[in-house]
Amino acid sequence: MALVAARDLVQKKHALLRNFPVIGHARYLLETIGPELRQYVVTSNEEERPFSRDQRTWIYASAKEENNYFGFGTDVDVEHVQGHAYVKQRTFAGTLPDLHDPQAPLPSAKVLGGPRGRAKAFRPASVVNISAMSFGSLSGAAVTALNKGAALAGAMQNTGEGGLSPYHRNGGDLVLQIGTSYFGCRDEDGTFNLDKLKDVVAGAPVKAIEIKLSQGAKPGLGGMLPGAKVTPEIAEIRSIPVGKDCASPSRHTAFHDVDSMLDFVELLATETGLPVGIKSAVGEMSFWQELATLMARGDRGVDFVTIDGGEGGTGAAPLIFTDSVSLPFRMGFSRVYGTFAERGLTDDLTFIGSGKLGLPENAATAFALGVDMINVAREAMLSIGCIQAQKCHTDKCPTGIATQDPWLGRGIDAPSKATRAAVYLRTLRKELLKVSGAVGVAHPALITTNDIEIMNGDYDARTLASVYGYKDGWGELGPELAQEITALLTAKPAPLQKPAG
């Protein structure tokens, strides 16, 4: 202690330690464990962000197949919490699927790529899928657990922009994301290489391709992978030099405007046969207006649009981008949806939402606004053991999920964590079926903007349609799609036939 005191007195970096040697270290210790103290000691069950204690508890219990009910009433101040959503149940309902079957299917109401006649169009088996998280931002063990969990739950996993790694090849179907650096399908100078993309697609269970324009946590900002993290394994997957800094550009080089982007989309779809879509956060609207206008012609178009809310998370981002760049999900999505709805295009493409939608209330609200599927990221991380330590950007994730440290990564037992991820995905689907049943419809995509109200100040609430300016019919499936998905979910299995004689 004398040596520590002497060092503190002579060092010049920390004024606190010069003035209060030894005991001043207590302040830094408390600062280090501040997130944990706030999680478990200081805050109320509904107070903490980004996920409250109640929300984390629900995810943990759901993933472990434990009792995820809550007793003695709500912690929410129901008449005063601004922005809280309330679902309006119906007294009577038509035919509903079995709401108590834990294995009940919940497929997408739309065929992905069907309206544009893609060769490999398909109906996604799950409306809940795992969002884009790259190997590099997540450890290999975490990616493995999530991919195996997706396979067990019949869901898909998005690779993220870091390329398709060996950890993505554990049985789960994939959505291959292409970012601005074209990792895994690029030439040495960083330009896009179509032949490499086709090789990647041919060698893995890739069901669709997603072109990432931006993400909610850091839209319009290219990433930086320090050279120290560019291991031989990551370098091979991403087709970049070992040990050198890798800076991703903020914009694509394979196209430069909406018109050339649609040409690029059609090229990828023609060469691979796969549905092709885009992912973006929402800022200025001229991009979306031009995209919808060009798609209205009918000759070119994206098969799906993934909208990421500004509240979405990532491993690391500047504070101003995390807090203040791009619109929150509900606001951003409603504007994009309305742009396509004005042109009568909403049945012609699949809408995917992401940004804290892995909770039943948020997911149900998203479906009412017009989402067809949701992607979950941080909620999936919580299901495999994330404790919201908020150390993703330091490479010191204590649970081994958001790190490349081999010692920390070994803490994840992929097989058992895969089961937890799968159970969480199934439970969320089951909760969505229950909410849909309460509203009196067979599928969450059939929930409308008039079925949910948003608190708008003390003792006042407005429907989603009113809050977000939706016109009659917006957010709803067309009659044919609605009838098709209802019939699919409520069809009775054919009775077994006894053999003759």
Automatic annotation (TrEMBL):
Gene Ontology BP term (one): glutamate biosynthetic process
Protein name: Glutamate synthase domain-containing protein
Limits of the Glutamate synthase domain: 125-441
Signal peptide interval: none
Organism of provenance: Streptomyces malaysiensis
InterPro entries according to UniProt: Aldolase_TIM, GltB, Glu_synthdom
Residue stretches spanning the membrane: none
CDD domains reported for this sequence: GltS_FMN
Family the entry assigns: Belongs to the glutamate synthase family.
Gene3D superfamilies assigned to the protein according to its UniProt record, in alphabetical order: Aldolase class I
Gene Ontology MF, one: glutamate synthase activity
Family annotation (PANTHER family): ARCHAEAL-TYPE GLUTAMATE SYNTHASE [NADPH] (PTHR43819:SF1)
Highest taxon above the source species: Bacteria
